[in-house]
Amino acid sequence: MLETLFLLVAGLLGGAVNSLAGGGSFIVFPALLAVGVPPVIANASNTYAAMPGYVSGTVGYWSAMAKYKDRLVLYTIMSLVFGYIGAELLLVVSDKVFSLVVPWLMAFAVLLFIFGNQINSLVASRGGSGRGMRLVGSALLLVFLALVCVYGGFFNAGLGILLLAFLATAGMSDIHAMNGLKLYISSIVALVAVARFAFNGSIDWYHGSIALVGVVVGGYLAARLAHLIPRQWIRTGVIIYGVVMTGYFFWGAYLA
Length: 256
Fold this sequence. Notes:
The chain is mostly helical. 84% of the residues lie in helices and 0% in strands.
């Protein structure tokens, strides 16, 4: 009972954080580990728990994405293929190896979260109005997207920030359309990854579903009450928590 309540609260907090500032995976993934879910399965279950938020967000931004619908076929194919590759990579990694990799992934994701706005602003300033396509080249942009989708299929945290950086590099500047496409690509990556994890039996459906319910409810309530909570407070709290958890994972993997 306490375990169920703990995961539900973690999901509520993770969903609320995702809705208000992003970074909910920093809460849900460690919570799954804390109740005894093995690392690889916890990571797969975290992707499963996050998936509904991506899908509902995509629906909400659909009208803003309309003028970029010509990109959806290519983005869908890239997301399916390379999201699958990322999921496949996760499944061939042992829990022991993944436990050694997690601290580095967490550190990378936390740094992306902290400096994501600056990264996206820098990229956008160098690639607006289609210049990104000309400067970097279509092939390199596709390589960039492929690597981001592989990362997302392997480890969910920080995916949104990487996708915003890609879209800015591709010459986009409409933040609403960018958020929509970010969520669309995240949805496809999560869907194919969850399908692969499910086929392999690598999702803890019980614990993952409790977290999923919490994420959905927390995201909805936070969206309704967002005006009552300063976004910067949430962001600062996520950063502090992310840094602490990263330190904890490093300690557990290399020093304990």
